Amino acid sequence: MNQDCVDWLYGLSAPMVALNKKYGASYTSPSFFPDRTFVDMADDWGIDSREKLLNCVFDMVDDGHAPMLSRYYAMYSRFSESQWRDYCQAQDDYQKVLLTFVEQTFCVCGYGGIRSWDYARMGYLLRNGTTNKYISEEEALWIFSRIAERSQYFYSSWHHYFAGWSIGFQYWETLNNKEDLEALRCELTRASQTHTMKILINDEDSPCNRLAWYIDIDELEKPESLAEYDWS
């Protein structure tokens, strides 16, 4: 696999790099933090072993936070204006707030919605898992290549991908607020990650400034060491 392809795969975790740039995060190193020999993932993620890391990644790539809104983004992409309006009117007040959020953000993240919120975070875990020697770089790259296939299907550019992550972050911050709908509406309309997005767009090392979105990703053979996991 050529270096541009490797850099592209690691670029899927770029939003998390921008978020942690001041702590030494790298866009292209196999290790998310190149100057560290161990990254504690136990407190925030409950991960302290290979098994927990892989189970988390394989679960969260397709069944993380994104499915909570994915069907709405899909519906918005195919419904006529009147169909969408009729559907929204039939929902409860909480769902109406979420549907308005989807309608307002579709133009910047598209059909993919907030899937990249899960993809980028799992990339972050994979690279830290490589640092901690829970997984090998070969294993990490194969998993990244599977996330890449999903990413290129659901998004049409780095900017769409980054926007999906930012919107997902915004949604994640509101998950526990289901009672005060006015507060929820306000929280969903504020742009909480503008600084991180500026870094992603303006940083010359960011993948969006170095690599085309649609590149051929080498089809990697699944490592034997991951054969026990029915995931691809």
From TrEMBL:
Name all DUF1266 domain ranges: 42-213
Tell me the InterPro entries matching this sequence: DUF1266 (IPR009677)
Q: Which Pfam families match?
A: DUF1266
What name appears for this protein in its UniProt entry?
Answer: DUF1266 domain-containing protein
